[in-house]
Design a protein that fits this description.
By secondary structure, the chain is mainly α. It is built from ten helices and no strands. The longest helix has 16 residues.
């Protein structure tokens, strides 16, 4: 059982939305592995592009339902009828390019000659100093640029350098919790 931090603790300035606070405290920056879990995060980060993460977080359960729990082989089998079904679902972000990219990315995951876990984590940078303010947190890094370039070569879509870096943050490849944030230590000293 996790102990909730006191309300006066220091957190990264993510606002006061309870769902965002819970995500920040329990998930963001925590090491994540596994094909399905990483495919889900990659997909949601792509859907988030140009939007607020809060929008995606509010719709995450519906995304999981309509994308078969982000099981890559199942999503890889989606066809035009599924695209039409997804475009009609107001519970998700109805962007044809992002929907088609998610299906295409699932097919790419299934066709990989190495585990998705190994591919993505091969770009995790070494330790670096904790950011003190959000001005210290980059939007991209040489590692995220390299990840995006490699993913594109492999056939992945909608995973540019900024999205790749957001994926790195979300899955604990980097720890961008601010130096005095209560969640930094729990996320690990990456």
């Amino acid at each position: 059982m996790s102990v909730e931090p006191a309300p006066d603790v220091v957190r990264c300035p993510w606002g006061d939305d309870p769902q965002m606070i819970a995500y920040h405290d329990r998930e963001w920056g925590r090491e994540l592995h596994g094909e399905t879990a990483l495919f889900e995060r990659m997909s949601l980060e792509a859907f988030q592009s140009g939007l607020s993460w809060a929008v995606i977080l509010r719709k995450r359960e519906r995304f999981r339902e309509v994308f078969a729990g982000f099981d890559p082989p199942t999503v890889a089998a989606f066809g035009e009828a599924d695209v039409a079904r997804l475009l009609d679902d107001a519970g998700i972000v109805r962007n044809r390019l992002k929907i088609e990219a998610t299906i295409s990315n699932a097919r790419t995951v299934v066709a990989l000659d190495e585990p998705l876990d190994d591919l993505l984590w091969s770009f995790a940078p070494g330790p670096r100093p904790a950011p003190v303010t959000y001005a210290d947190v980059p939007a991209t890094t040489p590692e995220s640029v390299a990840m995006a370039k490699t993913l594109k070569k492999r056939g992945f879509r909608f995973v540019g350098p900024t999205t790749a870096y957001a994926l790195m943050q979300a899955t604990g490849m980097v720890n961008d919790h601010l130096a005095d944030c209560v969640a930094r230590e729990a996320a690990g000293a990456v």
